[in-house]
Hints:
Elements lengths: L8 E2 L1 H11 L5 H5 L6 H4 L5 E2 L1 H14 L6 H6 L9 H7 L4 H10 L9 E6 L3 E7 L8 H19 L8 E3 L8 H8 L11 E5 L12 H18 L4 H10 L8 H7 L4 H10 L4 H19 L4 H7 L5 H12 L3 H8 L2
Antiparallel strand pairs: 1-2, 3-4, 4-6, 5-6
Helix pairs in contact: 1-4, 4-14, 6-7, 6-10, 11-14, 14-17, 15-16
Amino acid sequence: MSKKAPILHPVAIPQVMINFAANHGIDQDTCLQGTDITEKVLLDSEALITRTQEMRLIENLILALPDVPALGFKLGQQYNIATFGIWGFALRTSRTLRDAATRALQYLPLSTAYCRVYQFEDADHYGLGMDPESIPPHLRQFLLERDMATGLNLMKELSLAGVSVTSTEFQGKPPEYADLIETLSGLKPMYNSTRNAMKIQLKDVDRPLPTFDANLVRMLDEQCRMQLERRQRTGLAEQVRRQLLGSLGLVAALDDVANALALSPRSLRRKLEQENTSFRLIVDDERRQIALQLLTCSNMILDELAIHLGYTDTASFTRAFRRWMGCSPGEYRKNNSN
């Protein structure tokens, strides 16, 4: 399996987000706008969604709840071992916390994690680091906080023998809601750190877990491997989106993306047509979603926003925005500002 191949996620993941939104007064239609996730899909326990669909749902959630502090962290606290099915149960039956973490990383695409997660040790602590660099900038802080809160929740569930996370660290400056994160997690985070991480005492990492079951571990390992194969995404449109939201950026031309995918521009156009889309439509869709996010949740000036979205000038961005929304970016920001 290609390491770059996108992985499909179970429908339980958006269901958690939709339930979370409902508790904040946001209806299901608002959450699902532009995701192509139908009611039928939500009711199918075996259904899978793409990471692009999940990201669109996340964008909708952020746009709908701009005034909720620590939104990503609060959402992360809704996930537990049972949410992740086979992957979660494989962690629960592991021999030690170290084994559970190693298994979690081996099959990480079966989780909600967007950060690159890695293990490390220092003199007295074992830790899990979280690198959000590959996440699109407009979602980076939200998803880092969601991953951190989810990790803390899972660690708490696994540590039935009394082991607990002793500290958390974040690379950036403290957000305005830092005190709320401390209240929610029960830990005072350290900011301006060299990494984003959670730590436990090194002496506890190899302590046997009370739920260890050697036979179940072998069976669940095999099921995790099979699920990874099943969820591998081969659609080209999804791969194009990943390139645009990754290192190439929205400024990339069709030729740039074709080269990154080892295709000729002509082949890329033809294959996208077979998926009932086009390079222009994909770029347009991503620009629109990110524009709405930044206009609502940031103070970025229009000139900078246009450049960020890959436009050569503000006038081009404004024309595109009027086509999308029927109003100017300034009018939209004024009507949707906090």
